[in-house]
Amino acid sequence: MTTGHAQVEARDGERDPFAWTFTAPLYVGSSLNPINSSIIATALVPIATGLHVSVGSTSVLVTSLYLTSAIAQPTAGKLAEVIGPRRVFLGGILLVLLGGLIGGFGQNLATLTVARVFVGIGTSAGFPSAMVLIRRRATDAGLESPPGGVLGGVAIAGMATAAVGPPIGGLLVGAAGWRWAFLINIPVTALAMAMAVRWVPRDPVREGGRRGFREVADRIDLLGILGFAAAMTSLIIFLMSLPHADWYALAVFVVVAVPTVWWELRATRPFFDLRELAANGALGRTYLRQAFTLLGVYTVMYGMTQWMEAARGVSAEDAGLLLLPMGAVSAMLSRPLASRNLVRGPLIASAVTMLVGSVGIVLLTSHGPVVAIVSVSLIFGVISAASTVGNQTALYLSASPEQIGTASGLFRTFGYLGTIVSAVATGIVFHDGVGDHGLHTLGVVLVAAGVVVLLLTVLDRRLMTRRDMSRRTGTEKNTTNTAQGEQHVSTTAVPAIDPQRTALLAMDFQNGIVARVSDPDALLERVNGAIAEVRAAGCTVGYVRVAFTEDDWAAVPETNKTFAAAAAAKMMHHEDTTTQINERISPQEGDIVVRKIRFGGISTTDLDAQLRDRGIDTLVLSGISTSGVVLSTLIDAADRDYRVYVLSDGVADPDAEAHEVLMNNVFPSRAHVIDTTQLHELLRSA
């Protein structure tokens, strides 16, 4: 959670926390990577001519940026979470400026490759930093999620700007020469820097002052990042070597990947959280859809561009203009789609349209009408908009708030894997010359990719609109009536549960306290059912009760308003029947049972140590009362970086008004509020 300055800014902008002054620099920063990814497409042939190298050798300018970005995107996201998104955002802009200068004045292919590496690292900061800033602004403004138009703007800045890259590149290269494929970064970064310095909110002041290198390295999992980088580099070198496989690169990949996976599975703060990815199937499927979709989109950008220039004899400017409809349609459709918070519909439309467009590529010929090329461009514009909006919204809904930066970076990484495979496929089919046969082969590959995307979409039952998601899990704001009245349940997608890392805590369900709430039998029945379900799923069950020994009473100072009175009255002795856990939910062998002497379940017990020893980082809270043990434990657990769920129908409070305020206005900012039905869904999908 952000504090201090960020909260002040949120209050200052509470009328519209997502005003254009906040979003504009984020959109510009997020557009730097896709523009640089695509603008080079029409410059490869002129670069080869100007530097007197083969056209094939210029592919290193494409793959170097993709490789760098694939590694740098999640790294930048992790850094944004740890040291602050504004710092990472501004640092990235400076690196892009440096890359633009190096490339604009470079005299050989090696220098241009170095420039693309700098550009790749710098532009990778934009998207994940923007997602962290958006998530924090929504939290500070008391919103569960930002307005759909905000994510739509990021979508336009992402895939839509990538789609207009070739036309822009064609015009620049044709009018001013290939160097402007690099120099364009100078005015763009100047604009981005001015906007970011003025309008991007400052990072909150960190408690304890500056962090040293060792602490930062531990928090970002530097060893994991290095292992990931080495594995990705060797894998991509292997892919780029095809069809003449570089088996040494593949061997290096295996040698590096195995220990990296071992390390990440055991790291306290893993860079690539494999356990979370395995538990969160919705997020993993989102990554795969993005990869396969971008395989198609970038094949059109690069493969068709090369085919138009080499097989049809079209100039760089004209090739860019023929792909202009892709960018125009993508830009026009992205915002209205995003503003409606749609997920499943756009993704199904994208998958079906990808199949249609891929068949269209198979039917293209070098002597065919120009309108056929424009039609394919239009179709892939629809794909670009629908897939980007759908997958990006699915990403926001599926990723946990505390890991949105890294998840956003990995989202882009998987996209780059798709683009790299696109470059590999294009290089293979055009290896002996660019012609219709190679283009048709690419079309067949894209048909297969389209089938995969369609299956990943229609068979994914967790894909739906936000409203449909709420209906399915019982999480609409007008949720079910319980003994405490209307309950608030989270309307955003809830992260998946890993049973091995999860504990359900039943707190203060002891005889003397259960009797204080209305309809205790129904409450105990629901909690008992939840306990049975989590036991069956392999989760841990923990019990917390409040009770005192004589020494505990004597140690309570008079400054404690609540417990000084209890101690004076000798209340809740640890051997009294009133302090024993109700027999209807009694503990079993292997459960955790702790006795506390204050409100919270953690502060005066060894509960945290027992949970950590079992590798638990996720808590599901139930208990009596909402304003007592549940509130105190939730805040304490959240501050200790647990992921927290609160069972809305597994908690109760004698004060119905206090219960309502906490459930609706306090808990959602710190925990995922679910009910037992949704818990059942999460356990079933684990």
Summarize this structure as a short list of keywords or feature phrases.
686 residues; 6-stranded parallel sheet; two-stranded antiparallel ribbon; disordered N terminus; single chain; elongated; 30 helices; alpha/beta
Description:
Mean pLDDT is 81; it is low at 1-14 and 465-492. The two termini are 27 Å apart. The chain has helices spanning 5-12, 20-39, 44-51, 59-83, 85-104, 109-123, 126-140, 148-176, 180-183, 185-199, 213-220, 222-241, 247-266, 274-279, 281-310, 316-322, 324-339, 344-363, 370-398, 404-429, 436-458, 466-473, 511-514, 520-537, 550-555, 561-568, 607-613, 626-639, 656-666, 676-685; strands at 481-482, 485-486, 502-507, 540-546, 592-596, 618-624, 643-652, 672-674. It has 30 helices and 8 strands. The strands form 2 sheets. Strands 5-4-3-6-7-8 form a 6-stranded parallel sheet, with helices on both faces. Strand 7 (643-652), helix 29 (656-666) and strand 8 (672-674) form a beta-alpha-beta unit. Helix 2 (20-39) crosses helix 8 and helix 15 (281-310) runs antiparallel to helix 21 (436-458). The chain is an alpha/beta fold and 686 residues long.
**Count of DSSP H/I helices:** 30
Which word captures the global form?
elongated
Percentage of residues in strands: 5-15%
Portion of residues in helices?
Answer: 55-70%
CA-CA gap between termini: 27 Å
Q: What integer value in Å does the Rg equal?
A: 28 Å
Main sheet characteristics: 6 strands, parallel
Number of strands: 8
Specify the structural class: alpha/beta
Name the strands of the widest sheet in spatial order. Answer: 5-4-3-6-7-8
Summed over residues and divided by their number, the pLDDT gives a mean of 81
Low-confidence stretches: 1-14, 465-492
